[in-house]
Amino acid sequence: MKTTRHLRFRPWVRAAVLGLGLLATGCSHTAPATASNRPADTRGKARVVLDENPPEKAVELLRAMQLQTPDDLDVARALTEAHVKAGRTDAWIAELQGRIAAQERAVDQYMLGLALFSRARDAGAPTVAAFERAIALAPETAEFHYRLGVARLESEQYAAAVEPLRRATTLAPERTAWRLPLAKALHRTGDAPGAVAALGSVVRGRPSPGEVTTARALMEQIADPFAGIPKTAEAKLEEGLRYLNDLDAPQHAILAFEEILHDYPDLAVVHALLGLAYQRLDDAGRAVDEFKQAIERAPRDGKNHLYLGELYLSRQRPDAARTAFEQAVALHPLLDVAWFRLGDLHLERRDLNAAREAFSVAVALTPDAVPPRGKLALVYQLEGDYAAAERELRHVVEKDPENMEFSLRLGLLFTEQAMKSSRAETRKTASGEAERWLGKVLEAQPENAVASRALQQLKAQ
After folding, report:
1. Which of 166, 368, 389, 424 is the most buried (most CB within 10 A)?
2. Is the pLDDT of residue 5 over 60?
3. pLDDT band at residue 31 using 50, 70 and 90 as cut-offs
4. Which domain holds residue 250?
5. Which of 171, 205, 222 is the last residue of a domain?
6. Which residue, of 254, 278, 299, is where some domain finishes?
7. Rounded to whole angstroms, how far apart are CA atoms 260 and 436?
8. How many domains does the chain have?
9. Could you tell me if residue 385 is inside a domain?
10. Residue 358 lies in a domain
11. CA distances from 267 to 62, 233, 264, 306, 332 (A)
12. Span of 38-52, 93-107, 236-250 with lowest mean pLDDT
């Protein structure tokens, strides 16, 4: 993999729209503090009702559910969304205002805020006022603080959004996705380190693919290495990148980059590109010097630490590489290559906890990539968590049934489980699965010695 892919030049366009609408389904499973003792099997039922029924029917069913669980915020949110989808927003707002006038309740103010937000003319002050009242009535409910923060964020009240979003993540630290809007608010108020730290929590919290996309877009805004390029240097930079990336002519790229640095010696990204060009020529000394100059000029750009780490790794300096990769992900948590490299380095040291975290993040950032998932499965197997290892391996073979490497690994996993288990039933089940997967491998590769030996082990036990 070419590390230059992280620095591919692009037009000076900065655009990353955060899809953080108040009725977003990505937050539908959030449980408020007031409902923490609700049976787990009722969670998500409101979402199912909304997704599997026409809006009008969903309104009817969700009304009945709310009568049974009036303080359930999952139901309240789904009911409001059903009204909006059914075109009944105005009537629902009027009904809620009537309820509040008769007897003010936090959940009604919460639903009013959600409904008001769906109307463009009310998405600002009226929405904020409703959520503020919900907080006044139930100050320990994290969901209310979160919605207030997002409402202010969407109204471009960035500084005002920070405090409620911080409060929400404090009250519900397990809701790592809530740190996405917090990161945006912090970035917009000039707190880049705080925004990066928030994104670091997001990637460690098993984010969804959509959340990863949002986090990547925001991180590119926070850490755009090309942001300070003068207009007069753009053409020469394009030329150098073309030589480096497209024509594989690092000598010509070096001439272009050095010409830029003659006039603009403090451009960190050009020093980094120059380092990559020297690395292509196997001039490690010059490459290290340029990467260090890039780091000195842009100390908060994690990509420069990634390039330095890759160089150290290629020179068999694992300790220096690990330090560089750790700094890289601290400054730029979306660098999947750095997480993967860290996982490998931790695995070599048998630090399974650290390896598991690194590979888990790499899998979350690149869910369709096979190598990180395979390494994560190996860590789980070494820890004796056979179910987790099986889950990761099956993810690959279900998408690619012809992947004999992972089919073999499943066979070996079940073989190990059968050999080590003290329970007869577990041994029998694992042996059956092992024979099935090993047989599949041998059918495709009759000379596979590893599969043959494993099968013989099973039959001899």
Report:
1. 389
2. no
3. very low
4. 224-299
5. 222
6. 299
7. 61
8. 2
9. no
10. no
11. 58, 10, 6, 18, 19
12. 38-52
User: Residue ranges of the alpha helices (H) in 247-385?
Assistant: 250-263, 268-280, 284-297, 302-314, 318-331, 336-348, 352-365, 370-383
Residue 17 has pLDDT above 80, yes or no: no
Coil, helix or strand at residue 172: coil
User: Is pLDDT above 80 for 438?
Assistant: yes
When pLDDT is averaged across residues 384-389 and rounded to a whole number, the result is 96
- The whole-angstrom separation of Cα 254 and Cα 245 is 12
Chain position carrying tokens 């089919």: 407
Higher pLDDT, 225 or 240: 240
Residue 391 domain-assigned (yes or no): no
- Whether residue 207 is found in the same domain as residue 237: no
What pTM was computed for the model? 0.85
In this structure, are 33 and 116 located in the same domain? yes
DSSP 388-403: HHHHHHHHHHHH-TT-
156 and 263 together in one domain: no
CATH code for position 234: 1.25.40.10
275 and 242 share one domain: yes
Residue 131: both structure tokens together: 């959520």
Say how far residue 325 (Cα) sits from the centre of its chain. Answer: 18
Is the domain of 63 the same as that of 198? yes
- Rounded CA-CA distance 285/58 in Å is 66
Q: Phi and psi at residue 459, in whole multiples of 5°?
A: -70, -20
Torsion of CA 129, 133, 135, 139, to 10 degrees: 150
Residues 243 and 199 reside in one and the same domain: no
| Dist. CA 175–CA 154, nearest whole Å | 20
Indicate the pLDDT class of residue 117, thresholds 50, 70 and 90: very high
Kindly state the average pLDDT of the residues 320-324.
Answer: 98
In a domain, 330, yes or no: no
